[in-house]
Design goal:
Elements: E1 13-14, E2 17-23, E3 31-35, E4 45-55, E5 61-64, E6 70-75, E7 80-81, E8 84-86, E9 90-91, H1 93-102, E10 110-113, E11 117-130, E12 133-140, E13 153-157, E14 164-182, E15 185-200, E16 204-209, E17 218-221, E18 224-230, E19 234-236, E20 246-256, E21 262-265, E22 269-276, E23 284-286, E24 301-304, E25 309-321, E26 324-330, H2 332-338, E27 343-349, E28 353-363, H3 368-375, E29 382-385, E30 389-394
Parallel strand pairs: 3-16, 3-29, 19-30
Antiparallel strand pairs: 1-2, 2-4, 4-11, 5-10, 6-7, 6-14, 8-9, 8-13, 11-12, 12-13, 14-15, 14-16, 17-18, 18-20, 20-25, 21-24, 22-28, 23-27, 25-26, 26-27, 28-29, 28-30
Length: about 400
Amino acid sequence: MTSSEPNNINTSKTDGIHIEITRPHPLLFPICVYSIPQKDSGVNAPIRLDISVINDSSTPFYINLFQSFIPDLVTLDGRIIQPNLVTEEIITNTQLNKSLEYSHREEVRWWQIRPESSFGFRLTAKLFWQNNSLKLKIPSPANYIFGSTGLNYFWCFDDLQANTYQLRFILTTEFQAKYASNSGIITEKIARETSSKILTTSWVNLRLVHPLSTDNNAIEVDGIVFKVEMQKSILNIPARQTSTITDVKFYIHIMNNLSTDLCFYKVGSFKLTLIAEDGKEISFGSDPIKEVRDVVERQNYYLVKSKESGVFDLDGMLFWEYGQLKLAISNKYRHYFTGENTFDYFIGLNPGVSYQVQVVYHFMEQGVRQLEEQVLEKIWTGWVAMPFVEFRIVEP
């Protein structure tokens, strides 16, 4: 997948403190492609963003959990997309600053990041349609992650297009830790600084792509068509109190429209997201990692020749366990390293409900040149979140 040059703005560092987007990492995945959901689907497509605060200094760093990672979104030509801060209604940025800075001053909570360590925050952004406008909504402030307050603020970018955007986060550190000694006991005191320090992450490229007009289950990315389909869109629930299962099968079709052959690695991870009718994401778990076996003899890639297509298959099953209806999908990444059939499990499904599932395939650029020398073929690298497909679970 071809990459675009990000803005020439590097991660800032202040007194040994800096912040990074670690998922998706901009060095490992120069461009991350996300399929734009259909207008009438009602899907809020998740975009998971992990941010780490890294303390390379020799003293602890304190972050106020009510502080906000402020997203900065621009187009490749430098046009700034202005966000609104929204709750149930849009409010202004001036109101935001006053709200976050003063309204909870008596309830300020702190998180200590020890010297030579880091702490990660997970933000799940949502891409969705509202009033005929494509929007990207990112949770704020940081304490939203911890569920520590009833605050429910979001940064919202409106009227997005099928385009490549650059995203980074800005953090203003208004406080720092100071130490005082009292009778030989070290105590920690938080003191407000007179001036703020601004930290920024590097830029990550997000490309938004419409599904093909001829096939809502497919998108094209730099000459490669990715398509998802299910063998059956209506799944019968197996009988309770039995060991019977309902087979579930996904197919990922890859059409190579380029003039060169491409390898797609099995160890390139498949990630699935499952969303119920009410828009809530279904929780999942995975089989525990077992002993790693010798994997040298196992073929670990698919070769898709120029102007031809290939198919990945993901086997799954629907079954009852401990009174819960579960959907298990094969995990090719773990299978490659362990040789065992391992699965990811979506838990607590319900009969009579429709679900939307999205497949993400990614393989990072790190170490690709060495792999290409081994297989004597060009290897596809990138991050593609494919269109959602719908299925329904029914009583037999």
